[in-house]
Specification:
alpha/beta
């Protein structure tokens, strides 16, 4: 596996030779880069048709398929997989204003426009009486002077050209003064000024593609040689400037002077670096680490132990459950490196250092809020059939690590027992102390710190009604869910993601070197935090959207799969 999963590549002056060819050497390097798990995207100022032709040429020679192309300096982005397009235009009024200015230069300056109507061809529109100058500069037979025949001149990009650099500088100054608020203007060559829609460039396009591919900015590389590459070079953490352009050398992380096979040099020297070192794996419990029988399968347990023992990696269970449950699971991991085991419990309300029997962090719900929510539950559900409420209390560390069993309390114990008989029979009779609502208020809330409230309502209409009623607490608590029949309530700003950040800070490790694995809505914050997060194909679309890897495996296998493919770099895709 490689660190950089997305490589943006400029065409002219970078991937293309002087004669506009792509070398066999660069083709081979791109193929190897894809084999290692990388995605590359052509990112050019060229026309849409020209960019697509080069993309098709590469795919034919490499027997592969690119996923995106970026043309017109970012104004046109095409998803080649499903043919969807994202596009931006310079308004017709602005194009005509520039066109009219060019006419006043008496043929000293030319205008070359990439309009909507030139999308399917390489033809462009130029001011008629400077047509011969354009031909001389670019030696193209596909330039046609058709400005007068087009009703809508809205354009993806404009090129303003001049044989004299002095006259071109005058044009540049005029453009900045008269349309600078409407468009972005930059030199890409001493004879060429490029004009794009305001705020649109190769950087914004590359950022869009990265998000579509679920690749974080930390895993993006870019290689280019022109001024229009500067925004992308500044944005990409791994950036390589090609050629002698001093401005680009200043903003890029690396520099390659020789243009010949420069893409190969960039890939071999900088992009195809050492395998990523993962420092911590954080896993959800139910539906993720546990299989359908609420057990850890041997192969997953073996890979966790290998990760800890061979790579000195940290492992944390990040669960909505209480610590007593999590400790029993951590007991199954056989390792001498007990200092490497941690627990995030109650959806991030508490974080524990297991070996040192220490609570690193905890955040409880204000007692008046807990009482209000309990009263709301009782008022809404006088008939509590198929409904129960549970609170998770925060004990002193000495009680917890001595396996004190009772750190959660339940209203309607009978309903809870019936529920777990159906959904998780293994954990019946474990840790609950039954209470009625008054006992919960008088004996628990008055004396305990509450980390989490769990409400279970199996009827979906009634559950929706409860969620709506809880809306008035949204400025005081965090509300999420880990299944289709529960509601989980924590203190404000508590989540598995915030807890994982706290744990990383405690261990002095970068969150960018973590793997987070989960399957449900309460896992989304930590899946979004980790650039190597993983979930299963069968999970909800919102969960898959938050994860960076989606593996077609069942619960119980996802953690082992993520460790094997990401941390151990085994045939990762």
């Amino acid at each position: 596996m490689i660190k950089c999963k997305l490589l943006g590549i400029d065409l002219d002056g970078t991937l293309l030779s002087t004669f506009k060819h792509i070398s066999r050497t660069d083709m081979k390097s791109l193929k190897e880069y894809q084999t290692l798990g990388g995605n590359f995207v052509l990112c050019t100022g060229r026309s849409i048709n020209s960019t697509f032709n080069y993309s098709r040429l590469i795919d034919n020679k490499m027997n592969t398929a690119q996923k995106f192309i970026i043309a017109c300096c970012g104004s046109y982005i095409m998803n080649l997989t499903n043919s969807t397009v994202k596009e931006y235009f310079i308004p017709d009024t602005v194009v005509r204003k520039i066109h009219n200015y060019v006419l006043t230069t008496n043929g000293k300056i030319a205008l070359w426009a990439y309009t909507k109507e030139s999308i399917d061809t390489n033809s462009v529109l130029v001011t008629k009486h400077v047509f011969n100058n354009i031909i001389k500069i670019f030696k193209s037979s596909k330039l046609v002077p058709l400005v007068e025949t087009i009703e809508d001149l809205s354009s993806y990009k404009l090129n303003v050209l001049g044989v004299s650099p002095t006259r071109l500088k005058t044009a540049y100054d005029w453009l900045v003064a008269n349309v600078g608020n409407d468009v972005d203007i930059s030199y890409s060559h001493r004879r060429l000024i490029e004009i794009t829609p305001k705020g649109v460039n190769k950087k914004t396009a590359l950022e869009y593609v990265a998000k579509q591919l679920k690749i974080p900015q930390t895993q993006v590389a870019y290689v280019g040689d022109s001024n229009n590459d500067a925004p992308a070079l500044k944005w990409a953490p791994l950036s390589i400037a090609i050629g002698p352009n001093k401005k680009l050398i200043e903003v890029a992380k690396y520099h390659i002077r020789n243009r010949k096979n420069c893409v190969t040099a960039a890939i071999n020297k900088y992009v195809k670096d050492e395998a990523l070192q993962i420092s911590l794996v954080a896993s959800d419990l139910d539906g993720t680490l546990f299989d359908k029988n609420t057990t850890i399968i041997p192969s997953t347990l073996h890979l966790i132990e290998r990760f800890i023992n061979e790579k000195n990696g940290f492992f944390a269970i990040a669960s909505g459950r209480n610590l007593a449950d999590v400790l029993l699971v951590l007991d199954e991991i056989e390792t001498n490196k007990t200092d490497n085991l941690f627990a995030i419990t109650c959806n991030g309300a508490a974080v524990y250092d297991i070996a040192n029997k220490k609570c690193i962090f905890s955040k409880t719900i204000d007692s008046p809020v807990v009482k209000e929510i309990i009263d709301l539950f009782n008022n809404m559900f006088a008939n509590k059939q198929e409904k129960f409420l549970e609170v998770f209390a925060h004990y002193e560390e000495s009680m917890i690590f001595n396996r004190q069993p009772l750190n959660s309390y339940v209203i309607n114990r009978e309903e809870q027992t019936n529920f777990y008989k159906k959904y998780s029979p293994q954990i019946i009779e474990r840790y609950w102390a039954p209470r009625n609502a008054q006992q919960l208020a008088d004996e628990v809330i008055a004396n305990e710190k509450i980390l989490k409230i769990l409400i279970t309502v199996q009827n979906q209409d009634e559950r929706a009604r409860m969620i709506a009623a809880l809306d008035k607490f949204k400025d005081r608590v965090t509300i999420c869910s880990s299944s289709g029949f529960n509601i989980e309530i924590n203190a404000l700003h508590v989540s598995k993601g915030s807890a994982l950040e706290i744990l990383c800070h405690y261990l002095a490790i970068d969150p960018k070197t973590t793997i987070a694995v989960g399957d449900n809505f309460n896992d989304i914050p930590m899946l979004e935090l980790s650039p190597y997060s993983a979930t299963m194909l069968a999970t909800h679309e919102k969960v898959k959207k938050a994860a960076h890897y989606v593996f077609d495996v069942p619960s119980g296998e996802i953690v082992g799969t993520a460790i094997e493919k990401i941390a151990f770099n085994k045939n990762n895709e």
